[in-house]
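Researcher: Let's walk through a ligand-bound prediction step by step. First, I give you the protein sequence. Second, the SMILES string for coenzyme A. Third, you return the three-dimensional complex as C-alpha cells. Ready?
Model: Ready.
Researcher: Here are steps one and two:
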Amino acid sequence: MSSVEREPWPEEAQIRPMHELDVPVVVAIERAAYQFPWSEGIFRDCLRVGYVCRVIDVGAGTAGYGIMSIGAGEAHILNVCIRDGHRGRGLARKLLIYLLDSARASGMNEAFLEVRPSNTVAGHLYRSLGFEQVGVRRGYYQASIGREDAAVLRRALLSGPA
Ligand SMILES: CC(C)(COP(=O)(O)OP(=O)(O)OC[C@H]1O[C@@H](n2cnc3c(N)ncnc32)[C@H](O)[C@@H]1OP(=O)(O)O)[C@@H](O)C(=O)NCCC(=O)NCCS
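Model: Step three, the predicted complex:
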C-alpha cells in the first residue's frame, strides 16, 4: 500500500455499537488474530444477551472490536482485538478507555480481564492502563500443546483516570 493509499490515523477512528451485520467481519478479524478464535455463535450470543459489544471503524472499514460484560459492580473485558495492519496506532488503547469509561458510567467499581502470559503486547497495554495481576486461572486457555494459564488482571474504576 502506498503512503497515499494508507488508511486514516486513529483520530478518525469511531467507536460504535456492534450489530448483527458486523458479525461476519468481526469473525474474520477474530480468525486472523487468534489461533483458537471465538466462533460466530459466541459473538451472536454476546449481542443477544446484551453485553457491551463495540466495533472501532477507521474510514469505511472495521479495524477491531471490544466486548465487555457488566453486572454486580464488575466489568469483565472479554475480548479486545485489532485487525493486523491497524495495530500499533493506539486503537486498542482508545477502545479500552472507552469500555472502562462506559463501565464506570454504569456504576461498576472494578474491571477484570484474563490474558495469556505469553501475550506480552496485550499485557503491556493492560498494565499501562492500570491493570494489575490478581490471580492465575490454571489451564484456562487452549494451547498448541496442552493448556495455557490465564493471568487475571484487575483495576479499580471509581478513582483515577481511565
Ligand atoms: C493486543 C492488541 C489488541 C493491541 O492493539 P493495538 O491497537 O496494536 O494496541 P495500541 O496501538 O493501542 O497499543 C497500546 C499499547 O500496547 C502495547 N503495544 C502495542 N504494540 C506493541 C508491540 N508491537 N510490542 C510491544 N508492545 C506493544 C504498548 O504498551 C502500547 O502502548 P504505547 O503505544 O504507549 O507504547 C492487538 O495486538 C491485537 O488485536 N492482538 C491480537 C488479539 C489479542 O491478543 N487481543 C488481546 C487478548 S487478551
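Researcher: And what stands out?
Model: Helices lie at 23-33, 40-48, 91-105, 120-128. Residues 10-156 form a domain with the Aminopeptidase fold (CATH 3.40.630.30).
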